[in-house]
Write a structure and sequence with these properties.
Its EC number is 3.2.1.51. Pfam families: Alpha_L_fucos, Fucosidase_C. It is built from 13 helices and 16 strands. It is an alpha/beta fold. The strands form three sheets. An eight-stranded parallel β-barrel has the order 1-2-3-4-5-6-7-8. The longest helix has 18 residues. The protein is globular and about 80 Å long.
Length: 539
Amino acid sequence: MLRGCLLAAFALTGPSALAAPLPSPADAPTASALSPAQMDQAWQRATARYEPERKVLLAKVAQGDAMGPFRPDWISLAHYRAPAWFGAAKFGIFIHWGVYAVPAFANEWYPRNMYDGRTREHAHQLGTYGGLTQRGYKDFVAGFKAQHWDPAAWARLFRQAGARYVVQVAEHSDGFAMYDSRLSRWTAAKMGPKRDVVAALERAVRAEGLRFGLSSHRAEHDWFFDHGRELASDVNDPACADLYGPAVSHFLQDGDQDLEQDWTYVSPAYVGDWLARTAELEAYYRPDLIYLDWWVGHPAFRDALAELLAYYFNHGSRRGGVVLNYKLHALPNGGGVLDVERGQLGGIQATPWQTDTTISNDSWGYVAHDSYRSATSIIQLLADVVSKNGNLLLDIGPRPDGSIVPQEQVVLREIGQWLATNGAAIYDSRPWRVYGEGPTAPAAGAFKEQLARPYTASDFRFTRNKDMLYAIELGWPDDGTVLIHSITPADRVQDVRLLGSPTPVRWQSTGQGLVLHVGARPAGPAAFVFAIRTATDTP
């Protein structure tokens, strides 16, 4: 009987799709039987065939490190500056699309949690598909067909949404590459869609005049499937190790954001493979941006991370500059562009930064019966982030067939319509002397979105663009009168208009601030932009 990773994939249509194979010793739990080093050695043996190509890629990295102007050390890398295009772009689209869209349950960490006996994902997996010796994560690959995928239609939608750059997940923590990796057979080019998804989307995105980026979540693949070793599952099968990775125990002592207290085993071989697989993105796709998930901040990756950055920045400097996004404290300040996941910062930053969040209320990838954020909430977030010198990277999760959920499309187009009218306050803008005013200040830091409170008509965010000051009101006054305290007589206001409205705005400059008589609320999302001209360029 065909079984295990030798199948690679079969059509998964439900619990009765294939008769359950008999358990085999290869499925037996190994968490207590093997040391982390032995787990890693099994992965090394399973991927040994790719060693020649790894050496080729690591040689490319070494050559790039020697090119200059950057060296692979942190003193040199601290001289990095984000290219002008990134600071001007302000809004991008993130795409989490992969095999995890097939089960379409909970979120994109289903591949990990389906093996954890304490989770609802595990209960769902057993109740829907049977035991983990019968259905492992590998068996979802056949259901990831992308049969309705149209990369050109995606790119048009992203442009209509007002995005200036697009970031595709090249490889999530599940170990399945969405590009034609030379270091794995578990790729979209060889299985599932049997297309180089990254290459096709890159061409379509650039054809629409947008910048193209890629993300890698490969670092945490070292331990991502560790729960599969705690029970009978295909993660224990050495024949599957080239997909499931070392699957060593994730051993941390102070939460997963404090990587100084993460003692998970990481072999030099795994770090070298991570460096080669991440270098593939630059070597073969030339992305304008690379986004690295947080676990690259683990101390084991520090030297390899410096090598990657020097290689990427040196090549990127020859095409106008590139962006490297990092989280938390994975890099020293200035070594890349900080990304704050599901959160905001508390004030104006001296250098560009980025918030990334998802249009879904629950998941970065597609899940069935999901709920979605409103265009208003996303536009208000965009205004807050841009007022502090940041960008917003908004994620969507397409279905496994390549279609984008209609409700996501509606929200994206509503954002695009708002930007078509109000984009002067966003694109190419810079912060004003204060980022905003009002009673609603978002909690600063990553993963603080759940603490957000609704904005009011007294909440404003400010930007400047050329000779114009923009005040973005995040609500509308019931009495039709607005008071902006931060704009004083010393600013010498000359004219005020509401973008998108032909009706003049009556205004008065008083000792309390700028008073606007605005009347009835216009249609559209609750973010209303007043363009304010002053006698001089107000600092």
